[in-house]
DNA sequence: CATCTGATG
DNA sequence: CATCAGATG
């Protein structure tokens, strides 16, 4: 059903996350505070899983769409680094140019790399790493996309790490055409890169691959993040020699999401989407110990995810 | 000294209210909350003053630049009506079109009138009145200014009430030309109106008339609100048969301001400007009991002012 | 519902 | 240092 019109573009109502609205919720004067900080002490960050051949993890990578670095910092988002203590930490939607980075973004023990596009306050990705990469490259090598600050590649001894913030298809799918260009460009880029070393791709892929990956698949088939076009893009990527580590390890697990709209208390009701992934080259599969969703960690409308490897 | 350039316009540093900045105040992570609500119980709203010929007040008018009606409501601005209980209450900078007025703006015992311009979230004036006016007119009758929602005229039995939100001359005085058109138009309008009945003009005149009317006259002579041009406009108005009631009653009173920038804790240091006025036709002067500044009342960067009359 | 910018004051 | 709109998610 239609709620607004803007020019000739039909804007569909996705504000209820595809659920039917039964009441007209006016909420006058009932503005509530969302949960912003995490109770880290109650979260178990340990991991006793191992690889198929029984090797325990010795390398950890985390990723988080922070939805605005400056706001996330105020919500103590960096605390996550202390408790999770990953070797590599990838951030998406930093929305903060390097010159405006607050000083606390310098963290002892990590090298930091940042990429912003031309548009202020839009997109942007970042990378914290304990081991200095052999090389860091910015962007896909495609002008249209690289002006937006969506991808960093860090070359390590044994693999490439790619942080990505995939373009959102937008309200009314206005930017689905952009996305349809991005997806094959990314695949092409990864194919070239993968010829040299295995790849660990992480970040906000802005798609829930299958019905199991979101709470309301039926009502969201024409909304950004669950169109057939976007889903097909992910299917194609996975066919080209990549593994969705989480779904590989937990093929039947329901209710596992990494994003919840701020609207309608979606997070407390777990009305969410799995949009954030660790996707690795097939040949890295034997080294994966676990792929976990830190759904108890607050600080943005996404939660962090962590990959544990034996390297 | 110059802090920013924008195109060819030189933007002078008025963020310190004309004071010299001695320290580079970084204030990282020290975001403070401003005082937003008033302790009405500690404020004396009584008035024992009378007219020259000893008559006590029986009619009260208040005026307040609310700086955004919706935010002001959240800060309990309407509480002021209960404690002050004026016969007429005038608002400026409501920045709220009539269709978006929150329901609590309907107040028992008052008729309300609102005017917004074409630009959403900009300017706007309002009027609460216990006695229904004989007529309410919107605007000055000049297209350029009336598209901005800056003036309401209410005709009563014995006088005209004019609520005005005078155009700000802007950073770098970019809108001083607009102001220089407005001032004579307003005087012309008041002259016509005054031929029929005496006038009570109130609102944010966006000028401190004399040096006594602001904390930092020396450093603000080329800033909006204290240019010679704006001051001359007020001088001319007062020469044409109008009285600045506050300064008439308190010709020597210093530190009497109605506006303080939110920047640099100006209000707590009383680094302010007198920008809000009750200006009446000379022939109403004998009926004025008092003209007061409610500087203890919070809710915007301006405080309310009140005029007490014997009608 | 929340984040940003940019205009405005 | 605030408010608001509008874009974006």
UniProtKB/TrEMBL annotation, chains A, B:
GO BP: any one term: base-excision repair
E.C. designation(s): 3.1.-.-
Site feature location: Important for catalytic activity: 276
This protein's record includes keyword Repressor: no
Biological source species: Gryllus longicercus
Sites marked Transition state stabilizer: 206
The protein's required cofactors: Mg(2+); Mn(2+)
Site (Interaction with DNA substrate): 302
Protein name listed in UniProt: DNA-(apurinic or apyrimidinic site) endonuclease
Catalytic activity: Exonucleolytic cleavage in the 3'- to 5'-direction to yield nucleoside 5'-phosphates
């Amino acid at each position: 059903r239609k709620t607004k019109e803007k020019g000739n573009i039909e804007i569909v109502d996705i504000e209820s996350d595809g659920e039917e609205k039964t009441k007209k919720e006016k909420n006058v004067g009932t503005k509530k505070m969302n949960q912003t900080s995490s109770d880290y002490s109650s979260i178990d960050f340990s991991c006793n899983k191992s690889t198929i051949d029984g090797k325990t993890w010795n390398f950890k990578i985390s990723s988080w769409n922070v939805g605005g670095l400056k706001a996330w910092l105020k919500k103590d988002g960096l605390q996550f680094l202390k408790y999770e203590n990953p070797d590599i930490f990838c951030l998406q939607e930093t929305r903060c140019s390097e010159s405006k980075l607050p000083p606390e973004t310098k963290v002892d023990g990590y090298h930091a790399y940042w990429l912003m596009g031309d548009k202020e306050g839009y997109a942007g990705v970042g990378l914290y790493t304990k081991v200095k990469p052999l090389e860091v490259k910015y962007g896909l090598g495609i002008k249209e996309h690289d002006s937006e600050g969506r991808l960093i590649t860090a070359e390590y001894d044994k693999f490439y790490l790619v942080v990505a913030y995939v373009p959102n298809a937008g309200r009314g799918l206005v930017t689905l055409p952009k996305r349809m260009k991005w997806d094959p460009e990314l695949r092409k880029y990864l194919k070239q890169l993968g010829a040299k070393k295995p790849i660990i791709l992480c970040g906000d892929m802005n798609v829930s691959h299958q019905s199991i990956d979101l709470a309301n698949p039926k009502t969201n088939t024409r909304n950004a993040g669950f169109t057939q076009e976007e889903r097909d893009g992910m299917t194609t990527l996975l066919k080209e020699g990549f593994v969705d580590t989480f779904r590989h390890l937990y093929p039947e697990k329901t209710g596992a999401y990494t994003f919840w709209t701020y609207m309608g208390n979606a997070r407390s009701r777990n009305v969410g989407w799995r949009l954030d992934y660790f996707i690795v080259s097939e040949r890295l599969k034997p080294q994966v110990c676990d792929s976990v969703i830190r759904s108890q960690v607050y600080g943005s409308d996404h939660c962090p995810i962590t990959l544990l490897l034996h390297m």
